[in-house]
Amino acid sequence: MADTNDLLYSKVRELLPDAKRIVLDLTDLTRMDSMGLGALVRLYVSARSAGCSLELMNLGKQVRILLGTAHLLSAFTIVGEHGIKLN
Questions:
Q1: 3-class DSSP state of 61
Q2: Quick one: DSSP state of residue 58?
Q3: Which positions ≥6 away from 67 have C-beta within 8 Å?
Q4: Which ranges constitute the DSSP H helices of the chain?
Q5: What global pTM score does this model have?
Q6: Distance, CA of 86 to CA of 8 (rounded, Å)
Q7: Do 48 and 15 contact (CB within 8 A), yes or no?
């Protein structure tokens, strides 16, 4: 939903000037639509522009499939438990 996407974007964007690494824990995210995908891409571009690494963890099956279908899975660093990089 647009409200949620804007909230996520604004909250994470606040961290960018000072952070070198941001990890989004998507444990409770079971589904994502194109607006959510767009929000992740916007965050990715903003983070890269700020010299920050945006990483994702605990991707659900549907979210992983959506990122793969959009050929974006390789754009994001996916981390596992305890911050271990998986790709």
A1: helix
A2: S
A3: 37, 59, 73, 76
A4: 2-15, 34-49, 61-69
A5: 0.81
A6: 24
A7: no
The residue with greater pLDDT, 2 or 5, is 5
* Token pair listed for 78: 């996916």
**Is 61:31 a contact under the CB 8 Å cutoff?**
no
- Report pLDDT digits (tens) over 12-59: 989 988 999 999 999 998 888 888 899 999 999 999 999 999 999 999
CA pair distance 70, 1, nearest whole angstrom: 19
Burial class (CB in 10 A: 0-12, 13-18, 19+), 18: exposed
Which of 76 and 84 is assigned the larger pLDDT?
Answer: 76
Q: What is the band of 72 on the pLDDT scale with cuts at 50, 70, 90?
A: very high
Report the amino acid identity of residue 51.
Answer: G
Residue type, 25: D
DSSP helix/strand/coil, 64: helix
